[in-house]
Amino acid sequence: MPVLLFLIDTSASMNQRSHLGTSYLDIAKGAVETFLKLRSRDPASRGDRYMLVSFEEAPAGIKAGWKESHATFMTELRNLQAVGLTSIGQSLRTAFDLLNLNRLVSGIDNYGQGRNPFFLEPAIIVAITDGSKLTSSSGVQDELHLPLTTPLPGSELTKEPFRWDQRLFSLVLRIPGHTSPDPEPIGGVPLDPSPITPMCEVTGGRSYSVFSQRMLNQCLESLVQKIQSGVVINFEKTGPDPPPTEGKGEMKYGPQSWHSCHKMIYVRPNPKTGVPVGHWPIPESFWPDQNSPTLPPRAAHPQVKFSCVDSEPMVVDKVPFDKYELEPSPLTQYILERKSPHSCWQVFVCNSAKYGELGQPFGYLKASTALNCVNLFVMPYNYSVVLPLLALRMMGAPNLLADNMEYGLSYSVVSYLKKLSQQAKIEADRVCASVGKKAALEGGIKLRCRSSALSLAHRKDFTQLLHSIMGDGPALPMEANTKEFAGFQLAALNKALKPQGLRNPYDIPRSHLLDQLSRMRRNLLHASICILKGQDQDQLHSVPIAQMGNYQDFLKHCPSPLREADPDQPKRLHTFGNPFKLDKKAMMVDEADEFVTGTQGKGKRPGESSSPAGGGAPKRRRCMSPLLRLGRAYTPPKTPPRSKSFRN
Predict the structure, then answer these.
(1) CA-CA distance, 13 to 325, in Å (whole number)?
(2) pLDDT digits (tens, 9 = 90+) for 242-279
(3) Phi first, then psi: what are they for 472, rounded to 5°?
(4) What is the distance between the alpha carbons of residues 344 and 379, in angstroms, rounded to a whole number?
(5) Which of 102, 270, 561, 572 is 20 to 30 A from 163 via CA?
(6) How far is the CA of 62 from the CAs of 26, 50, 74, 244, 424, in angstroms?
(7) pTM score
(8) Is 109 within 8 Å of 160 (Cβ atoms)?
(9) 28-37, 126-135, 433-442: lowest mean pLDDT where?
(10) Taking Cα atoms as reference points, which of 438, 540, 534, 532 lies closest to residue 490?
(11) CA pair distance 298, 109, nearest whole angstrom
(12) Sheet strand arrangement including 531-532
């Protein structure tokens, strides 16, 4: 189930308009909708999860998270406004923390016990920005910096804020405000020189510098093709280069492009279950120590070394292995050009063994037989020694491998990981509950006077008090000074009301002036009550048509319901429009809902059977509704009247 997170720049600079007449923010919204349409053509898009994050501070910047529906995602997308700063560093950290919210709870990272490529949660972050200067409350920044501190538990176990199955792609809008007379360049979309580009490359993604609407559509089609299930790995060469093969030129000296590649391996799901299946992990870059109280932090992408010494592929019957295809890169191109499908290069992880810096091999790189791709085979650690021993053990040789391993994580590390999992669950619930909740606005304002005296407007010296407040008259004594509010209390009368009493008069539309004047007149005439009403009585029950069916958001803001008095009763569903619908799965069979056997056969012909043809199951009597059955009064059976013959 891929996660697609859209990070939209909502800084004030996104209000600038292109030569198309639309603002950059409108172009970004249209790009997201176009992306969703292109993605919907793929049948695999049914399992996609969409998230939306803006450049606002968390949690207000999280518009759609793990529990929001697609309708909420689209509504929040349309309601975005460009009014903030270009705080892309903080917003990126919020996006990564949102993606990593459930990883410690599910144990997908498997800290201290190797990295399992088949345990993944592929995510793609699509950032749409205008590439302006990075601004924050502290000033203008030249480089992109992500905050080091985060409330997410367990973030110290990984050096980077992202994980190996998360990639960042950026669409930097460079569409000019005036139509350019020069023809549009034809070819690939270039990288953008903005500070977000290095961050994209570190995660395994890239940036796109967009100069036209056609180029934007081209980038969106490319991004849809990037949605692949896989993890990013750093491949680095160790040892000397291989000797040149026949028909090839002389050996090139110095660093080559294939010596170090930062690419992805594809983790294909099982076609039957739709879930990837694997057996062996990529080892950690340290040897486990039972006396160690902590775990060393790991890099987001494992550093895999490959040796260019040709080896023979090794496979043992009945011993499983994992096979992953490499993303096309200079390394795969070089291996395919050698045309050696029957040889392989072993792969290592440094410091994975107890002795030796390079460690022992855990697999190998090998070209396919058809020479159309390169695969990474992951085997048991030190497979060149373990596989022959396993083969001998299958043949009956005893005492070749120990049944129990004496190495593992210490008790303190295991306890620490369990504690982090519990803290991460609490943090995940808190973040999910805070999504969509905005700061409560004060509606009506109720003033409670210090005494039971009349309002200031009813005092005889009201004019003198007014001049004193405005500074035109002499100051009043302390006990009569209306600027001192030590004894007053401000309380919201109704949290659901929007503020109408105290607002900038220039913000009132012209069509609403008469309504606002009537409210002000009513507040002035009822000043003794000390209540400022912001809405008319009929407006309290006025809801726009687009929000009438938004029942999920209504439930989100409702308080937690009380528990049922009788836990045996069926659980009542929150079904909009039908409050009496019950959960059919929780329904119990009533005693009266019994099978009918021989009594139903009365009144039938002698040749007919009471059971249906073929000896099937007997029919079930339809039970009356419990509400009707409980409300029906008991009626005693009527006795027939005696005949006249008995009276005589």
Answers:
(1) 42
(2) 887 765 555 666 678 899 999 999 998 888 888 888 99
(3) -90, -10
(4) 13
(5) 270
(6) 19, 12, 13, 54, 18
(7) 0.68
(8) no
(9) 433-442
(10) 532
(11) 11
(12) 489-492, 445-448, 531-532
d(CA 118, CA 280) in angstroms, rounded, equals 9
Report the chain's C-alpha Rg in angstroms: 36
- The pLDDT mean for the chain works out to 77
Residue 165 near residue 231, CB atoms below 8 Å: yes
Query: How crowded is residue 432: how many other Cβ atoms within 10 Å of its Cβ?
Result: 18
Give the bridge partners for 266, in sequence order: 230, 325
Q: In whole angstroms, what is the distance from residue 43 CA to residue 566 CA?
A: 44
Nearest 5 degrees, angle CA 30-CA 35-CA 40? 130
Taking the alpha carbons of 327, 331, 336, 341 in that order, is the dihedral positive or negative? negative
Q: Are the C-beta atoms of 89 and 138 separated by less than 8 Å?
A: no
Q: Give φ, ψ of 364 to 5 degrees.
A: -160, 160
Residue 46's pLDDT band, with cuts at 50, 70 and 90, is confident
Q: Which of 197-211, 326-340, 598-612 has the lowest mean pLDDT?
A: 598-612
Number of residues in the chain: 648
**Helices 70-78 and 24-39: angle between axes, nearest 10 degrees:** 160
Half-sphere exposure of 140 (CA within 13 A, CB side): 3
pLDDT at residue 305, rounded to an integer: 93
> In this structure, what DSSP letter does residue 307 have?
E
- C-beta separation of 229 from 2 below 8 A: yes
Neighbours of 143 (CB within 10 A): 8
- DSSP H or E stretch at residue 208: strand 207-210
First-to-final CA distance of the chain: 90
Distance CA 85, CA 134 (A): 8
Structure tokens at 194: 């903005």
Cα separation, 82 vs 24, whole angstroms: 9
Give the tokens for residue 81.
Answer: 């406004």
What was the pLDDT predicted at 344?
93
Q: What is the mean pLDDT of residues 539-564?
A: 68
Local structure of 490: helix, strand or coil: strand
- Residues 491, 530 contacting (CB under 8 angstroms): no
Please report the pLDDT score of residue 514 as a whole number. 87
Report the candidate in 331, 366, 328 with the shortest Cα–Cα distance to residue 256: 331
- Vertex 525 angle, CA 519 and 527, to 5°: 100
Beta strand spans in 349-488 (E)? 363-367, 374-378, 445-448
State how far the alpha carbon of 573 is from the alpha carbons of 18, 110, 551, 555, 586, in Å.
49, 37, 13, 12, 11
Residue from 382, 381, 401 nearest 390 by CA: 401
What pLDDT score was predicted for residue 601?
43
Residue bearing tokens 């909420």 = 72
Residues 127, 168: contact at Cβ < 8 Å? Answer: yes
Listed in order, strand segments (DSSP E) in 411-522 are 445-448, 489-492
Q: Higher confidence at residue 37 or residue 455? A: 37
Q: What average pLDDT score do residues 552-577 get?
A: 66
Statement: residue 441 has pLDDT above 50: no
Residue indicated by tokens 């406004």: 81
Tell me the mean pLDDT in the region 151-169. Answer: 90
Which amino acid makes up residue 104?
Answer: L
Torsion angle (degrees, nearest 10) of CA 85, 91, 94, 99: 150
